[in-house]
């Protein structure tokens, strides 16, 4: 590999053999070996001809629906699975955050498992002792370290394992959906850790269903569906393509690539009102069928296509009323006008209660302009207050 490539995947395929013939005795298990053909077996193609490269220092996302093959790909990168065909090349020490807690002993205490796992990661007892307090504090398990691990909840075990894994000295990290563990404070710690990795230019392969996390952290992303690569490129494009996979039916505007959904509900109007103090974004939603527990929100992008902000009614603690077919509801989002001088785009959306299946997603539904007396080279202009005073000699 060239010096700037951390991982290269060349035409990788992975097949699993699924047995369908029921074995009811030791005899049938033994005689079944000599049966001709492959009756009672089925080949599952988990990955088919997958190729991509990841540069050193790149935060790379792999996304896809459940069963698409993304986790299989991660386990091949981690050398847990061997590919049926194709090659994987890696440059540097690799640590997987996949099967967190592998090697933990449930009969030992949390404290004992920290030292055991530290030894497995290559640390001396003295080195583990020096980092022990930080490990426990990060996992938020100070009160439980002298309890046996078998008495921990699954979340507590993964938090301890994640905290241990963050101490590993690696060039490449493989992370599989660990943010689903723990409360909001612990997830915040995970995000801070990811920001640190990104700042330090660590190579990270990140598998997630959280498209906002993918947008925020990943430099590029890969979309896998039905065991094959569908698309690779900008994270915003991949996140949009991922959302489209969950559309149950094609939109009536199927030829318009900026809008899609299953039409359970439709965005009929989007209006933006800009004043010096506020920006009001109002969207009207009409149900085309009986609609229960809809989720609506918006994303705001600047002229460089970078996401500036966004929210939804659930995040704001608001619930939409249940709508019958033909009924409409209007929702207005008010935000302070701290945007810098420039042009912006509103992408409204209506989703099902699962937060994934799209009823109506409308990229570029409305554009608007913010005019300020000056133009800052930043996204926000919060109207700074500045105080200047001379410093007295005795205060110097």
Keywords:
396 residues; alpha+beta; Coagulation Factor XIII, Chain A, domain 1; six-stranded antiparallel beta sheet
Rg: 26 Å
Q: CATH class of the domain at 256-370, please?
A: Mainly Beta
Reported CATH architecture of the domain at 256-370: Distorted Sandwich
Number of helices: 8
Described by strand count, sense and barrel closure, the largest sheet is: 6 strands, mixed
Query: How many beta-strand runs?
Result: 18
Overview of the molecule:
Residues 248-255 have low confidence and may be disordered. 21% of the residues lie in helices and 33% in strands. It has eight helices and 18 strands. It is an alpha+beta fold and 396 residues long. The longest helix has 16 residues, at 184-199.
Helices and strands in order:
Blueprint (H helix, E strand, L loop, with lengths): L4 E15 L6 H6 L9 E15 L3 E5 L6 H8 L7 E6 L3 E4 L12 H11 L4 H15 L14 H12 L6 E5 L7 H16 L3 E5 L3 H7 L2 E6 L2 E6 L1 H10 L14 E2 L4 E10 L3 E10 L7 E8 L4 E6 L15 E9 L5 E10 L6 E5 L3 E5 L26
Parallel strand pairs: 3-7, 3-8, 5-6, 6-7
Antiparallel strand pairs: 1-2, 1-4, 8-9, 10-17, 11-12, 12-15, 13-14, 13-16, 16-17, 16-18
């Amino acid at each position: 590999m060239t010096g700037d490539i951390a991982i290269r995947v060349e035409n990788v395929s992975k097949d699993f053999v699924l047995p369908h013939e029921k074995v009811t005795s030791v005899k049938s298990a033994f005689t079944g070996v000599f049966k001709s053909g492959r009756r009672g077996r089925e080949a599952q193609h988990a990955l088919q001809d997958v190729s991509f490269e990841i540069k050193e220092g790149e935060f790379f996302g792999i996304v896809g629906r459940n069963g698409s093959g993304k986790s299989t790909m991660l386990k091949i990168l981690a050398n847990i699975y061997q590919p049926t065909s194709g090659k994987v090349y890696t440059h540097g020490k690799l640590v997987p955050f996949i099967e967190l807690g592998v090697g933990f002993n449930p009969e030992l205490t949390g404290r004992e498992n920290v030292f055991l796992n530290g030894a497995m990661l290559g640390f001396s007892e003295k080195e583990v002792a020096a980092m022990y307090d930080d490990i426990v504090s990060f996992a938020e398990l100070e009160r439980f370290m002298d309890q046996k691990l078998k008495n921990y909840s699954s979340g507590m075990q993964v938090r301890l394992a994640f905290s241990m894994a963050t101490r590993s000295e690696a060039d490449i990290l493989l992370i599989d959906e660990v943010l689903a563990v723990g409360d909001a404070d612990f997830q915040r710690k995970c995000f801070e850790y990811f920001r640190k990795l990104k700042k330090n230019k660590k190579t990270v392969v990140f598998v997630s269903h959280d498209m906002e996390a993918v947008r925020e952290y990943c430099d590029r992303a890969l979309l896998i569906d039905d065991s094959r690569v569908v698309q690779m490129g900008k994270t915003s494009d991949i996140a949009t393509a991922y959302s489209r996979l969950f559309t149950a039916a094609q939109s009536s505007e199927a030829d318009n690539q900026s809008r899609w959904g299953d039409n359970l509900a439709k965005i009929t109007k989007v209006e933006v009102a800009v004043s010096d103090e506020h920006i009001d974004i109002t969207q009207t939603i009409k149900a085309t069928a009986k609609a229960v527990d809809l989720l609506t929100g918006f994303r705001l992008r600047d002229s460089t296509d970078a996401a500036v902000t966004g929210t939804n009614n659930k995040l704001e603690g608001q619930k939409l009323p249940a709508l019958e077919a033909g009924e409409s509801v209007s929702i207005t989002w008010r935000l302070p006008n701290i945007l810098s001088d420039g042009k912006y785009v509103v992408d409204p959306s209506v989703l099902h209660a699962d937060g994934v299946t799209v009823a109506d997603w409308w990229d570029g539904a409305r554009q608007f302009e913010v005019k300020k007396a000056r133009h800052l080279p930043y996204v926000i202009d919060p109207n700074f207050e500045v105080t200047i005073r001379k410093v007295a000699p005795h205060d110097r």
